[in-house]
Every structure is written in C-alpha cells, then in structure tokens.
C-alpha cells in the first residue's frame, strides 16, 4: 500500500531493510531533519547492534536522552529488556499465586527467560508501550529497526496478540465469575474477607488495550509509515519486495523507499565502470518494482557519515520533504 504523503506528516515512521544497508544512518538523518523542522522527535533503535550511539556520537540508554533541540534518542537492549520484563511478570504473578506455589512458578518463569523468543516478547512489550505512551510526549517517533525478518515479526504481532490476549481476558473473567459463584455458595468465610482486585486480570486488560492501540496505530496510514532502505543489489531488492507484500497484508503503509550507496557517475577505472553498469541494471529493477512509492536516491559517500553535522548534510541531500 503506497502512501503519497511525505514522511514528515506522520506520527510514527519505521526505517527497515536488510542488514548492512544503512538503516541507522538514514533513520538518524531523518529524525534530525524532523527535529530541525520543529517536531519533537524521538529516535528509537531496536537493533541489537546499537550503532545509533556511534552515528550520533553520543552514549544512549533505554530511556529518552536529549541529543539536539527537539531531538531525543534511545536504544533498546533486548537482553536487558527481557530481564526487566521477567521481573515485572514475577511481581504480577506473585500477587495472584498461593505462597506454596510461588517457588515453582518462579522456577518456570526463569526457564521461560532463556527459552527462544523471550527477548523478542520483551521487545514487543516495550515496543507497544512506546507506541501507546511515548507518543503522547512527542510529535514524531522514528524507529531504527533490526534486520527485516525480526522487524516483520515485531510489526505483525500486535494484530495477532490482540486476538490472543482477548481470549485470555475472557478466560480470566470466567475464572473470576466461577470464584464468585463458589463464594456465594460457600458463604463469606470462603472468600477470606472483602474481594480484592485481580492483578492478573488487570495486567491482561492493560496489555490488551496497549496491543489494540499499537495495532490501530500501525494500520492507520495517516499516522504510520514504513520506509525501506536498500542498496542496488539483488538480495536487498528481493528482500524488500517480499517485506512489502507482508506489510500490505497487515495494512501497514509504505512511506518511502531510500536507495542508498549509489556509485557516483564521476568515479573512474575499469572495475568501477563495470560496477556502475551492473548497478544501473539494479536501479532499473528498483524503478520497475517500487516506482509507485516515493523514492529517494543517495550516493555513496567518500567517508562514513558520523555526527550531527554529517547527518544534516545527508538529510539535505535526500530531501525527505521536497517542499522544505
């Protein structure tokens, strides 16, 4: 699904693509550009490589840190996030678990911490919190994502999890209803006094609302857009085409295509001439495959793009907003 508006008009913008194509650099340049345009902007890195700190030449943590005027950034560490997530789950379960079962429940939770998918679940939990809560403090949230496969799983989870968590909420309600029926039959002595709020039900309801907010935000093309960064080579082109098809099934709009590291026309030598000839074929394929999307072309720089000054120069070259 193409999106004709500029990236600057959205509230949430994702930058994704195959590993090593320059997602972090492009996402950082856009976030800085948006901040310079007057938008309170938060750049969020979900890539475990943590290269955002290097590009911005600053040390980031898991909470928003001011980088420039109107510009904040944070890096999510999946492993640390999983540890915090497990601790929260333990605390919530402890409130609703009989003391005789507490040690066994904690043991099972610790086992779950090292199981496959634990860090992804924690990352998803933080992702939905940022979508539903941090958005209230910022005009724009820019996500610098992990390589394509992990990102697609993350973005398609809200739709799946909303249904799943809804079923858990319904089951918990039924359990509580049966408990009330038993207390009515057995009398007040079986209730142990005044009925207390159910922490499990409250936690499930909070997650259900958060997942639903994330799902609606992602599916709203006026608020959210996904931008792909690729380089003119066969595998990045193929991976981008496949990813666009997946996102279309989940109604996530494509805001732009950024073609990075194009060889300048003035580089010389027989080897570079052959590379340019091959690259021109890939650029034609990109035009044929993604011609319906807003496309930006970025030449290969002579040196790495590092620091705020370089990022501003890059953003000016890309022209994220042609009207600016």
Features:
about 325 residues, Rossmann fold, elongated, eight-stranded mixed sheet
Compile the SSE list and pairings:
Elements: E1 12-16, H1 23-36, E2 41-45, H2 52-56, E3 65-68, E4 71-75, H3 78-96, H4 99-113, H5 118-132, E5 140-144, H6 148-186, H7 199-218, E6 224-230, H8 234-249, E7 254-262, H9 270-290, E8 295-299, H10 307-318
Parallel strand pairs: 1-5, 1-6, 2-4, 2-5, 6-7, 7-8
Antiparallel strand pairs: 3-4
CATH fold type:
Rossmann fold
Helix/strand/pairing category: alpha/beta
DSSP strand count = 8
User: How many separate structural domains?
Assistant: 1
Can you summarize the main beta sheet?
8 strands, mixed
The amount of beta strand, in percent, is 5-15%
- Strand arrangement, major sheet: 3-4-2-5-1-6-7-8
Known CATH architecture: 3-Layer(aba) Sandwich
SSE succession: EHEHEEHHHEHHEHEHEH
CATH C-level class: Alpha Beta
Q: What Rg, in angstroms, do the CA atoms define?
A: 24 Å
**Count of DSSP H/I helices:** 10
Shape, please? Answer: elongated
Mean pLDDT: 81
Contiguous runs where pLDDT drops below 50 for at least 5 residues = 189-193
Distance linking N and C termini: 25 Å
Describe this structure in words.
By secondary structure, this protein is of the alpha/beta class. The protein has one domain: Rossmann fold (3-Layer(aba) Sandwich). Helix content is 54%, strand content 14%. The protein has 10 helices and 8 strands. Strands 3-4-2-5-1-6-7-8 form an 8-stranded mixed sheet, sandwiched between helices. Helix 8 links the parallel strand 6 and strand 7. Helix 5 crosses helix 6, helix 5 crosses helix 7 and helix 6 runs antiparallel to helix 7. The longest helix is centred in the middle third of the chain and has 39 residues. The chain is elongated. The protein starts with 11 loop residues before the first strand and ends in a 6-residue tail after the last helix.
């Amino acid at each position: 699904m193409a999106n004709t508006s500029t990236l600057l008009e959205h509230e949430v913008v994702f930058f994704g693509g195959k590993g090593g194509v320059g997602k972090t650099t492009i996402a950082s340049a856009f976030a800085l550009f948006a901040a310079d345009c007057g938008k309170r902007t938060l750049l969020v890195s979900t890539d475990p490589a943590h290269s955002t700190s290097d590009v911005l030449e600053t040390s980031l943590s898991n909470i928003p840190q001011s980088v420039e005027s109107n510009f904040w950034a944070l890096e999510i560490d999946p492993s640390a996030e999983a540890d915090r997530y497990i601790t929260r789950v333990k605390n919530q379960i402890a409130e609703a678990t009989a003391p005789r079962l507490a040690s066994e429940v904690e043991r099972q939770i610790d086992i779950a911490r090292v199981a496959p998918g634990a860090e992804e679940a924690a990352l998803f939990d933080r992702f939905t919190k940022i979508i539903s809560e941090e958005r209230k403090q910022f005009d724009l949230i820019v996500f610098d994502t992990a390589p394509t496969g992990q990102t697609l799983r993350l973005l398609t989870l809200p739709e799946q999890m909303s249904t799943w968590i809804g079923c858990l909420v319904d089951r918990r309600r039924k359990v509580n209803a049966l408990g009330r029926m038993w207390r009515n039959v057995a009398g007040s002595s079986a209730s142990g006094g005044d009925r207390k709020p159910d922490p499990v039900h409250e936690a499930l309801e909070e997650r259900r609302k958060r997942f639903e907010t994330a799902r609606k935000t992602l599916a709203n093309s006026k608020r959210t857009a996904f931008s792909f960064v690729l380089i003119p080579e066969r595998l990045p082109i193929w991976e981008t085409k496949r990813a666009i098809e997946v996102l279309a099934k989940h109604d996530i709009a494509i805001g732009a295509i950024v073609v990075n590291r194009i060889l300048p026309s003035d580089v010389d030598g027989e080897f570079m001439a052959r590379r340019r000839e091959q690259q021109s074929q890939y650029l034609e394929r990109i035009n044929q495959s993604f011609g319906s999307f807003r496309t930006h072309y970025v030449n290969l720089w002579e040196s790495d793009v590092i620091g705020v000054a370089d990022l501003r120069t890059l953003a000016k070259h890309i022209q994220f907003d042609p009207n600016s």
